[in-house]
Write a structure and sequence with these properties.
By secondary structure, the protein is an alpha+beta fold. The protein has 2 domains: 85 residues, Roll (SH3 type barrels); 141 residues, endopeptidase fold (from Nostoc punctiforme). The strands form 4 sheets. A 6-stranded antiparallel sheet has the order 10-15-11-12-13-14. It has a 5-stranded antiparallel sheet with strand order 6-5-4-1-7. It is globular. The protein starts with 14 loop residues before the first helix and ends in an 11-residue tail after the last strand. Belongs to the peptidase C40 family. InterPro entries: NLP_P60_dom (IPR000064), Papain-like_cys_pep_sf (IPR038765), Peptidase_C40 (IPR051202), SH3_16 (IPR041382). This is NlpC/P60 family protein. GO terms for molecular function: cysteine-type peptidase activity. Keywords: Hydrolase, Protease, Thiol protease.
């Protein structure tokens, strides 16, 4: 008979057993979501209480997941997950009607203005205070009142109801609309309309403010940042629905 002190140690559970594909979990603390299984390139940041679905087996100490509120894929560090006590979860999207979204826009704008008032800098992949990227800020502003929109600027452009806008012609823009910038082929930047051609956005160092600032669509604004983004203006869109959690391209 083997004594308890001599009993064999049970084998450690593998990552696949701990995090089976298809399982759904809730974060208890914020985590970075990475673009790849290796390297430090951020895809996004997942705040506490966000939920994720496991997509497959872990690779190089990172787990492929989709954040369920916006369907956004990224890689989470297994060590960070183990340290915070992730809990099993359920998820059912709350689909906001258009009138409720319109009523919430003052809160959306107030969130973005408060973020601008804090010391901040541009962070690629940033989606949590105080450092954001452009679409991380707009997503966080809507999410602050429970309205989920897609994560990336190009996804947000496709998600919105189009609104006609041109330089010096922005009468159709309303507060809370999203303004899109980029090349003729792809949207690469987004800002939040404050009305009268003014917009709030988080821009990088190369052509922007390395953080959140206010700029204008009218040609009278001759500062370098406004001039750069006016030249890259693609269009605008209105958030008239909330995301259902499906994974977008």
């Amino acid at each position: 008979m083997v004594s308890s002190s001599q009993a064999p140690t049970p084998p450690a559970r593998t990552a696949s057993a701990l995090w089976p594909p298809g399982s759904l979990w809730r974060l208890s603390a914020a985590l970075n979501g990475y673009r790849h299984s290796r390297g430090e390139c951020l895809a996004t940041q997942a705040l506490a209480e966000r939920r994720f679905r496991v997509l497959g087996a872990a690779v190089d100490g990172r787990l492929p997941v989709a954040l369920v509120e916006d369907g956004y894929p990224c890689w989470l560090c297994l060590t960070a997950l183990a340290d915070q006590g992730v809990l099993p979860a359920q998820f059912r999207p709350w689909l906001w009607p258009t009138p409720s979204i319109r009523a919430a826009l003052p809160q959306v704008i107030a969130f973005a203005e408060a973020a601008m008032a804090r010391p901040n800098r541009y962070l690629w992949g940033g989606a949590g205070a105080p450092h954001y990227d452009c679409s991380g800020l707009t997503q966080a502003a809507f999410a602050s009142c429970g309205i989920w929109i897609p994560r990336d600027a190009c996804q947000q452009e496709r998600f919105c109801q189009p609104v006609a806008v041109r330089v010096d012609e922005f009468s159709l823009l309303q507060q809370g609309d999203l303004i899109f910038f980029g090349s003729g082929r792809r949207c690469t930047h987004v800002g939040l309309s404050l009305g009268c051609g003014r917009y709030l956005h988080c821009s990088g160092r190369a052509h922007g403010r390395d953080g959140i600032g206010l700029d204008r669509l009218d040609s009278h604004a001759r500062d370098p940042v406004s001039v750069h983004y006016r030249a890259a203006l693609r269009g605008a869109g209105r958030v008239v629905r909330s995301h259902d959690g499906s994974q977008l391209a």
